[in-house]
Amino acid sequence: MNILNYTEDHHRFRKTLAEFLQKELVPQRDQWEEAHIVPKEAWKKMGAAGFLGTSVPEAYGGPGLDFLYSVIVSEELGKADLNGLAAGLHSDIVVPYIVSFGSEEQKKKYLPGCVSGDIVTAVAMTEPGAGSDVASIEMTAEHEGDEVVLNGSKTFISNGINCDLVIVAAKDPGVEDRHKAVSLYLVEDGTPGFTRGRQLEKMGGYSQDTAELFFSNCRIPKENLLGEKGAGFIMLMQKLQQERLVCAFMTVIVAELILEEVINYCRATEVDGKPLGKYQQVQFTIAEMATETRMNRALLDATIKGHMEGRDVIRETMMSKYASSESLNQMIDRVLDLFGDYGLLEANFLVKVFRDVRVITIFAGTTEVMKTIIAKSLGL
Amino acid sequence: MFELTKAQKQIQKAAAGFAKGEFDKELAYEYEKNGRFPESIWKQAADLGFVGIHFPEKYSGGGMGMLEAVLVSEAFCRKDASIGGALAMSTFGSESILRFGSDHLKETFLPPVAEGEMLPAAAFSESQRGGNFTSIKTTADRRKEEWVISGLKMNVINGQGAGFYIVLCRTGEETENSADGISMIVVEADRPGISTEAAGKKLGGNMTATSHVSFDNVAVSADNLVGVAGAGIAQLETFLSESRVLSAAQSLGTALGSLDRAMDYIKERVQFQRKLAAFQVTQHKIADMATKIELAELITYKAAWTRDQGRMDHKLNSMAKLTAARTAMEVGAQSIQLYGGYGYMTEYEVERYYREAKAAELHLGARDVQKDVIARAVIGKIK
Question: For B45-61, what is the mean pLDDT?
Answer without folding.
Answer: 97
